[in-house]
Amino acid sequence: MIDSIPPVVPAGRMRELAQPELVLPGGMLLRPWTPYDAPALVAAHGDPDVRHWNRPSRLDLAGAEERIALWHERWQAEKAGTWAIAPEGGRAVGLIGIADIDLAGGSGEIIYWLLPEGRGNGVTVKATDRLARWAFDDLGLYRVRITHSVGNPASCAVATKAGFPLEGTMRGALLHADGWHDEHLHARLRTDTAP
């Protein structure tokens, strides 16, 4: 007889935690999205680079506010956590989150994008490392992954610099507007040395 394996993270653990603000170097932070950030979400859904690599549908302000409310519901359902990347006291310039959360299996997937005004200063690497540390130390996950199109070298550089080594290539894994893309799979374990 096989003994059952206990969950890595007990159900209810994420729901019990208030979604935190996570401070980054350089006056930036990760914080829960608010209706104040809706214009940034509308802008992101219209940005050609964000649209190409993330496939979002276009949003108006009302749709952005509904999406932000949905992200708060997904936290309570223990399915995902979505943070705004923002200067302290300012509106979001990007998004980072941990999605596809499997508490029992101890895993999740980090997702991210930045608006043009947030690019070029290394904030995504810092945000990715900080969110991974929260996922391991506070939530209790064991493995966190990042996937991205092989045609997106900027995302590959973020993953690698944030301590997520490349594990392999998944063929034809995601459909973009220009066709099927192979995707890189990166992952970091709780036991890995942080960058």
TrEMBL record:
Alphabetical list of InterPro entries matching this protein: Acyl_CoA_acyltransferase, GNAT_dom, Ribosomal_N-acetyltransferase
Pfam families on file: Acetyltransf_3
Family matches, as PANTHER family: ACETYLTRANSFERASE, RIBOSOMAL-PROTEIN-SERINE ACETYLTRANSFERASE
The organism of origin for this protein: Streptomyces virginiae (Streptomyces cinnamonensis)
Protein name in UniProt: Acetyltransferase
Gene3D superfamilies: 3.40.630.30
Limits of the N-acetyltransferase domain: 28-192
